[in-house]
């Protein structure tokens, strides 16, 4: 069985200062910790799982690696 979790998060330019990225991440975590907001997100079928920017990036890298293995096994290549 093939299973992947969808990821939702915020992206920025690669040059964003680390302190700004951390501040935004902290503010997002504070907002989604509000029970009414967490409930609204959960009502859409999403699982609220706040993490750090590094954890989000690692999750994206993990999914890319999984897709690359599957694509290779199926002979799928990117359109040139």
Structural overview:
This protein is mostly helical and 80 residues long. The protein is built from 3 helices and no strands. The protein has helices at residues 18-32, 35-43, 53-74. The longest helix is centred in the C-terminal third of the chain and has 22 residues, at 53-74. The mean pLDDT is 89.
Considering the chains and any ligands shown, give keywords for the structure.
80 residues, mainly alpha
Provide the low-confidence segments as ranges: none
Oligomeric composition of the shown chains: single chain
Helix and strand content put the structural class at mainly alpha
Order of helices and strands: HHH
Helical residue percent? 55-70%
Mean pLDDT: 89
Number of helices: 3
- What is the tally of beta strands? 0
Give a quick precis of the structure.
Helix content is 57%, strand content 0%. It is an all-alpha fold and 80 residues long.
Break the fold down into its secondary structure elements and pairings:
Layout: H1 18-32, H2 35-43, H3 53-74
């Amino acid at each position: 069985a093939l299973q992947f979790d969808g990821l939702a998060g915020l992206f920025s330019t690669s040059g964003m200062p680390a302190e700004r990225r951390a501040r935004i991440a902290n503010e997002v975590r504070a907002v989604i910790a509000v029970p009414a907001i967490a409930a609204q997100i959960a009502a859409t079928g999403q699982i609220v799982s706040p993490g750090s920017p590094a954890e989000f990036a690692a999750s994206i890298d993990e999914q890319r690696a999984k897709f690359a293995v599957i694509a290779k096994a199926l002979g799928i290549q990117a359109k040139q």
